[in-house]
Amino acid sequence: MGYEIDFLPVGDGERSGEAIVFRCGNLSGPRNEQQIVIIDGGTKESGTELVKHIREYYNTNVADLVVSTHPDADHSAGLLAILENLKVGQLLMHLPWKHSDECRCLFKNGRITEGSLKKTLQASLQNAYDLEQIAREQGVPIIEPFSDSGRIRRDLIVLSPSKSFYELQIANFRATPEPKPEVSFLQRAKTTVVEAGKKIIETLGFETLKDPEDNETSAENNSSVILLWNYNNGEEFFLFCGDAGALALRKAIAVADTHGIDFRLVKFIQLPHHGSKHNVGPVLLDKIVGPKLQEETKVKTAYVSVAKEDQKHPSRKVANAFRRRGA
User: Fold this and answer.
1) What is the pLDDT of residue 215?
2) Which residues, including other chains, have CB under 8 Å from residue 254's CB and lie 6 or more apart?
3) Whole-angstrom distance, CA of residue 97 vs CA of residue 16
4) CB–CB of 107/171 below 8 Å?
5) What contacts 116, CB < 8 A, 6 or more positions away?
6) pLDDT tens digit string along 135-154?
7) In sequence order, what E strands does the chain have?
8) What pLDDT, on the 0 to 100 scale, is given for residue 186?
């Protein structure tokens, strides 16, 4: 048994995206002894490169599972090329327009209809809507991945979002009408911290990373599917976080606790949202990665995918925080 995780480059400027393919099983054996999972496809250009990569290096035209973590174009647009050029066994993606009836009550304007909300979501999330249409045309089964909908596969656990949490995120999407105050994550005033005196310099030995506020990550990012892949009958786990923020990661930790999952068994972690300091903090990392160690020791791998010219990501504070905890 073996595995490989390939991150393809996404973005040629300062904007980073994600295109990941995960292969496991008997890598030197026949195709039917392997599993190929695609997690996001980046832009349309990177989706084309992903197809070439799978054909050239995996010698196949089949992807067993494709996952769209959330509808942002730099994660989902490339999956159109995957469905158009490869045979796909199953597609995991959220269909926000299918939740229009449940979400109507979450908006300030009580006259919003199911039909108008559905059209708004389809138009504003065109890449995701096109992805659904192509999957339907190709006869690819679509499953909405929710943490409270039961196991999709024996080796895959969805840690976030739950269905109800996801619908709250829809109410806070950029293109939707104004939500009711009690369900709004984004209208809260951000806390401003003024540092007195000399600026504190981040070093590997001194942590300056702070725990982010709930509203520091967009609702679209917090709707990201957080996946835990169970490899080799639970001997190792791989954690894929998409662009999830602190709010979603806390939910994921709670779900992991209900499954009795020991995060010490997680050997590979994808940094959320390209290593942004607005998505993770010390309390979260103590749970997901582990407590700070007395000296720098490598006990697991943390991977961040960042466009070459992106100056903001990964945050030095976040990279150091992972290293302090053995990554």
Assistant:
1) 80
2) none
3) 26
4) yes
5) none
6) 999 999 999 999 998 888 88
7) 2-7, 19-25, 34-41, 62-63, 65-67, 87-88, 91-92, 142-143, 156-160, 226-231, 236-240, 266-270, 301-303
8) 61
Q: How confident is the model at residue 196 (pLDDT cuts 50, 70, 90)?
A: very low
- Name the β-bridge partners of 230: 237
Looking at the domain that runs over 2-324, which CATH code has it been given?
Answer: 3.60.15
CB atoms within 10 A of CB 222: 28
Cis peptide before 9 (omega within 30 of 0): no
Query: Domain segments of the chain: what residues?
Result: 2-324
Alpha carbon 3 to chain centroid, angstroms: 20
Nearest-angstrom CA–CA distance, 319 and 276: 9
Nearest-angstrom CA–CA distance, 212 and 245: 9
In the chain, where does DSSP find H-type helix? 44-57, 73-76, 79-85, 100-103, 114-124, 126-138, 163-171, 219-222, 246-258, 282-288, 316-324
3 state SS of 271 = coil
Amino acid present at 110: G
Indicate the residue type of 275.
Answer: G
Q: At residue 24, what are phi and psi to the nearest 5 degrees?
A: -145, 165
Place 200 in a pLDDT band, splitting at 50, 70 and 90: low
pTM, rounded to two decimals = 0.92
Phi, psi of 90 (to 5 degrees): -160, 145
Which pair of tokens denotes residue 172? 């806070």
> In the prediction, which pLDDT does 191 show?
40
